[in-house]
Amino acid sequence: MTYAMARGTLAAAMMGLLLVACTKDPVSPQAPVWTPCNLGLGSLYVQCLAVDPHDDNTLYAGTFGGLFRSTNGGRRWEPCGQGITSSDISAVAVSPHRPGVMLCGTWGKGVFLSEDGGQTWSARSNGIRNPRINAVAFDLHDTSRIYAATTDAMFLSDDGGCTWSPCFPYGNVRSVAVHPQIAQVLYVGVEYHGVLRSDDGGITWQAKNSGLHRTEGSYDAPWHIVFDPADPAVIYAPTGVVDLHKSEDGGETWKLMSEGLDWRRVRQVAIDRGNRLRLYAATDRGATQSNDGGQTWTTMSDGLTHSNVRAMVATAPAIYAGTYGGGVFRYATNR
To answer: Residues near 165 by Cβ (< 8 Å), separated by ≥ 6?
Structure first.
């Protein structure tokens, strides 16, 4: 073969490859995965997460080794529990009314309050019978009222936690949720008693268990109660026993949303900020996602190296999962 013929053959081959390349579909971006974000996190045993409602980049992680804060979307954490006399942090909440005001619940030392974004804390448990706290919450309509769910009852304070009184006087209260639009309406999840609602700020209560699963004759109690941000009549309630329950009538009736969950124990649910029908669930076997309001679920655990997910929160740019043993993981949604 002459030199000219060889050059012609090579040129033709290169042109053929170029044409093939041009006819192929563009390469799709790599599918997102969970990435660990634990720099500075002093304990990888995460029990609760919270997002500052005034700043999506500020997160709090309650762990078995204390409370930690990130001000840059989880890239770096720092301890922020000065004054909290327990390292076992079971609940944390940030005030929607006053920036910097926070509540922290501990397992054995009661409730603590911060007014400087978590830098310093003071004990606020006067009147709480049992110092084992399952959940804490700010009232969305009354700036002075706060709630603490304990293993013995639920308590309310009308003076910022200086004094407390029982408003649900018995039982292991696992969760508390304040209606986002209607003042005085509260929901609680109580072990063996299921879901109860108060329409008068906790003075009286009515059971709302129609359709809720029962175990050995007793109603399962939600670990988490979440309102749809666009329609608060839609409520999600994972019980940690048989997947997830959903109500579309304010809790009057419930139905089990289990297709694809495969009997995972769901602990918490987060709703995507940009799509109210997209849900994320923290389970004992990783993370799952629904794109149809909980009707069906698919596993989304790529990169999630620890399957025991205890907490899940949503921000505009990302979803965060708190695991028991692997710390915090981040899943980008602003792609």
So the answer is: 127, 155, 156, 157
Measure the CA dihedral 90/95/101/102, to 10°: 0
CA within 13 Å, CB half, 61: 37
Query: SS3 of 9, please?
Result: helix
**Could you tell me if 138 and 97 are in contact, meaning their C-beta atoms sit under 8 angstroms apart?**
yes
pLDDT digits (tens, 9 = 90+) for 96-136: 999 999 999 999 999 999 999 999 999 999 999 999 999 99
Q: Reduced to 3 states, what is the DSSP secondary structure of residue 231?
A: coil
Provide the phi-psi class of 144: left if phi over 0, else alpha when psi is between -120 and 50, else beta. Answer: alpha
The position carrying tokens 């003075």 is 203
Please state the φ and ψ torsions of residue 15, each to the nearest 5 degrees: -65, -40
Instruction: HSE, CB side, 13 Å, CA atoms: give it for residue 188.
Output: 36
**pLDDT tens string 311-323:** 999 999 999 999 9
Cα R_g (the chain), whole angstroms? 24
CA–CA gap between residue 117 and residue 140 (Å, rounded):
19
**Integer Cα distance of 50 and 41 in angstroms:** 15
How far are the Cα atoms of 29, 32, 268, 332 from residue 335, in angstroms, in the given order?
A: 10, 9, 24, 7
CA-to-CA distance for 89 and 104, rounded, in angstroms?
7
> What is the value of pTM for the model shown?
0.89
* In contact, 81 and 42? CB cutoff 8 Å: no
